[in-house]
Each structure stands twice: as C-alpha cells, then as structure tokens.
Amino acid sequence: MSSVTSAAQVVRVNGIELAYQVFGTGTPLILLHGGFGSVEMFGPNVDLLARGRRVIGVDLQSHGRSPAADRPMRFETMADDVAALMAELKLERAAIIGFSLGGAVALRLAIQHPQLVERPVLVSTVFKRSGWHPEMTAGMDSMGPEVAEALKQSPMYEAYTRIAPRIEDWPVLVRQVTAAMKIDYDWSADVPRLQMPVMIVIGDADGLPPSHAVEFFGLLGGGKRDAHWDRSGMTHHRLAVLPGLTHYDINLSPTLAQTVIPFLDGASSG
Q1: Top-tier CATH class for 9-261
Q2: Which residues contact 45 (CB under 8 A, 6 or more apart)?
Q3: Residue 7: pLDDT band by 50, 70, 90 thresholds?
Q4: Which of 219, 206, 220, 218 is nearest to 251 (CA)?
Q5: Most exposed residue of 171, 188, 243, 248, measured as fewest CB within 10 angstroms of its CB?
Q6: Within 13 Å of residue 66, how many CA atoms lie on the same side as its CB?
Q7: Is the pTM of this model over 0.85?
Q8: What is the pLDDT of residue 266?
C-alpha cells in the first residue's frame, strides 16, 4: 500500500487490543477507516498525507489487524478507544480524518474529547442515522450476522484475510458492525458546540445527499452569510463536495488528500 509503511503495533486500551501503523513524520494525523475495513481503505491517500505529517492509521475495534474484541461495537466506545490510544502514544492533540463508520467515530471523539482533536475531517459522515439516503439505511437494516458468508466474495474480506490475526473471526466483525449500523442516533445538539475547525467532505454521488452535508455545515455555523471581501463573514469550518465520487471510491481518490491538506495545514488559522 505505502512506501512508508511501518510494522503494525498493538496496544491494549479499554480492555481490547487496538492495532495501528505509523507513516511519515511531522504533526500527528489519525486516520479512521470505514466499516469492515482497515487503514488500507485510504489507498494512495495514506502516502499523500504522510508526505508532510505523521499519519497514524488505526484499525478500529475487531477490524483489520486488531484482534476481535468481545464487546458490543458503539461509536462512543470506539471514540474512547482512540482517546486512550492517543494517551498511550503521548499525543496531546491530533488532527483526525474519519471515513463513514470512522467518520462517526471521529465526530464522537471531537464531541467527547474536544481537547484531543485539533481539527476533524469527516468524510462521508452523517450526524444522524436518518441522514443517509433511504436505500443506504434499508441496506443497513437488512444486514445481519448471516451476511458474513456472502461478504466473503467482497474485496473487504479479501483484505481481511491478508491482515487479520485470526481469519476465522470474520463473522465476529460482521456481527458487531451490522449491529452497530442499526443503532439510531442524532447528534445534532452536540455539533453546534464544537469549537475546533471542522471539515465536511462528501462525494456528489455519496451515500448521503449533499443537502445533509449542507445541513451539517449549517449546524456548525457555516454557509450562513456572504464572506465579504475581507473574508470576515467566514467561519473556520469547511465544506467540500467532490465531483464524480461515490461512497465506494471517495476514500481511494487522491482528490481527497488534495482537498483536505490545505485545511490540515491551516492549523494556526481561524
């Protein structure tokens, strides 16, 4: 995947084992992948982001190189796991990029541990479950433990077989993710309280409509007025709708890194 790959390390946090890898050097940036995946889900973006920073790719609970955990999967507890990992790594603060399921974890991290998050980038992320397109929600509702066998035909399983500590734990991961996907949530009361700069990124053909991303941006105070010639009307939050990208390729497109790097580099602004 990456010319700057380091060997995976595993640490014990909150009673589970969490695997992570470090790429590059510089200011810390934590990457949180989507459901059923691992850091490999970001494809060439890992290298692109690691050119100017220390990228820490985490494999979330029961995913990838992290051993299957005997614990229900919740966005809130996974956010606490990332906070505990940061403490283990002696990271006082870091920028975060989360995609899909990882975006929900990144958002919860910013809500629950705002002092740890310098600036979150939330890719293909909803702030409430009903924010997904109806067919996405229907798909989540229809998936249960029984899909573990069918998903063995997917690229996600193929990747899992290459990196998981125990390939036979695939059904454990599927059971936990499909249960987590059914939990209803609405964090719209928490979003306006976020003080750090937040960037929302979606594809124009994503699993959520652009209108939801605009609503998300609006909860942060973005897009409410003209910026004025001196930019005094701008917030420090950002919204990007990337053309021609879907929920299934935005994470792999180099356009993602190109779009978010200026935001990440603006650590002293806003």
Answers
A1: alpha beta
A2: 251, 252, 253, 254, 256, 257
A3: confident
A4: 206
A5: 243
A6: 32
A7: yes
A8: 87
